[in-house]
Each structure stands twice: as C-alpha cells, then as structure tokens.
Amino acid sequence: MAYTIVIPARHGSSRLPGKPLHKIGDKTLIQHVYECAKRSQATEIIIATDDERIEAEAKTFFANVCMTSTEHGTGTDRLAEVIDKMQYSDDHIIVNLQGDEPLMPASVINQVAENLQQNPAASSATVCTRIKTVDDLFDPNVVKVVTDQNGFALYFSRASIPWDREHFPNHTVLPDYAEHYRHIGLYAYRAGFLKRFVQWPVCHHEKVESLEQLRSLWNGEKIHVDIAKEIPGPGIDTPEDLSKLRKMFED
C-alpha cells in the first residue's frame, strides 16, 4: 500500500533545545528517526521543519524536506501545511512519526497505516501496549486509552482508566484480570481529516488533559486503536533521556 511518513522536527524544544541535531553515536537524532522510517514500507518520507539548520542536516543524508511556517503550535499543524503544499488527495494516508522517536519499529509504523486502510470508518489510527505495573498505571505521563469492542477509542486520559472501584488505589501489583493500555503516540491520518482537524477549536477535554487527540473524539471522529506488534523503545524528551539512549547505543 502507498502511504507517506511525515517527520515533524523543530529546533526550539524547551526541555532539550536543538533536539533533532543532538548526536547519538555518529548520527544525529533526526537521522536515526529518518532511518527508522526508511525501514518501513512507506512510499514517501518527508521531514517537516521550520529551521534551516535541520534542513541542512537532513540534506546530508539525502532526505526530502518540506519547510513550514514558524507559527505552528503543534506537529499536527505542521503536517496539515505539508498536506496543503503537496496537494494530497483526501484519502491519502499520512503517518506522523515524531522526530524524537528513534526506536520506533518499522512493523508498528506499517501497522498503523494498514489499520487505517482496513478501517474506512476511522479518520485516524494509532496503537497501544498493555500496562504491566501499578507505577505506569498511576503515572500521568503515561497516557491511557479505553476502546470499544471493535477497537475504536472511547477516551484517552492521563488518569487511570478504567478505574477498578473495588480495589484502586490500594493495589501494589496489577491483578491478572486487569486490562489497562498505554497509548503510543504514533498516528496514521487520512489527509482530508487533517484538513478538518486544524480548523476546529481546542475543546475542553483536550485543554484539561493536554491531549490533542481528544479534539477528534469531541468532534465525532473515530480513532482505531490496535495493540502494537512490537513495543517501541523510549523517545527523547529530556537531557536524561538523551544520555540513556547514548549509553544504549554504546552498549
């Protein structure tokens, strides 16, 4: 199947300035992410950035770059500009691979694109993994997702959902019957949906939870969620994350 990967990359990260250009081994972070994308079955890969330094680095490994506005608040806004510039049809599938995810398995990238193609009722598709520890379940930085019986998202939250009324919050280990899922921030979108999405105002739930995908559910869109075929490695948000990944590559 034909689909495009767009890698949004910005220089001005508050917690790790210049994030895409930091070296891990002998390659920059943005090159590692690009090589993840290359291992997938995508027919096109585009790095979307507003920074000439990232553009120059991407050209050293012959990546296709789309320069975008400096005014975008989110990577989704940046994707929508790429769609507009490239004039994709409304049915064209775009995978948003974050520029700080150097260990995203190619199988999972392909999975989200295939799931979206196979679920015409969905405007986007994503993946999750099973939560196995109490610490993760109650960590607000671990986003939880609940789906219906057909795999469509009912809600995403930083809270522990579903809530076990009889036992929480006294569990020290998760019981065998527990089914809680961690959302992985990898999405496939239909291009036409993204054009609509960026026109909608931020909704109340999105603002409260700081979760952009809740805007889709608020507006009646369907998000298909599948269990990831492989568990992705850690992304890079902080200097500590970067140090850990460098050590992982050294080992």
How would you characterize this protein structure?
The strands form 2 sheets. Strands 1, 4, 5, 6, 7, 8, 9, 10 and 11 form a 9-stranded mixed beta sheet that branches. This protein has a two-stranded antiparallel sheet with strand order 2-3. The protein folds into 2 domains: 1-104 and 234-251, Spore Coat Polysaccharide Biosynthesis Protein SpsA, Chain A (Alpha-Beta Complex); 118-182 and 201-232, Spore Coat Polysaccharide Biosynthesis Protein SpsA, Chain A (Alpha-Beta Complex). The protein contains 9 helices and 11 strands. The radius of gyration is 18 Å and the shape is globular. By secondary structure, it is α/β, with parallel strands linked by helices.
How many domain modules? 2
Share of residues in helices: 25-40%
Tell me, rounded to a whole number, the average pLDDT: 95
Oligomer: single chain
CATH architecture of the largest domain: Alpha-Beta Complex
How far from one another are the termini?
36 Å
The level-1 CATH class of the largest domain: Alpha Beta
Total strands: the figure is: 11
Would you identify the regions where 5 or more consecutive residues have pLDDT less than 50? none
What is the CA-atom radius of gyration, in angstroms? 18 Å
Task: Give the helices and strands as they follow along the chain.
Answer: EEEHEHEHEHEHEEEHHHEH
- Principal-axes geometry comes out as globular
CATH superfamily name of the largest domain?
Spore Coat Polysaccharide Biosynthesis Protein SpsA, Chain A
Number of helices: 9
Largest sheet: 9 strands, mixed
Question: Helix- and strand-based class?
Answer: alpha/beta
Q: Report the sheet-strand fraction.
A: 15-25%
**CATH topology tier name of the largest domain:** Spore Coat Polysaccharide Biosynthesis Protein SpsA, Chain A
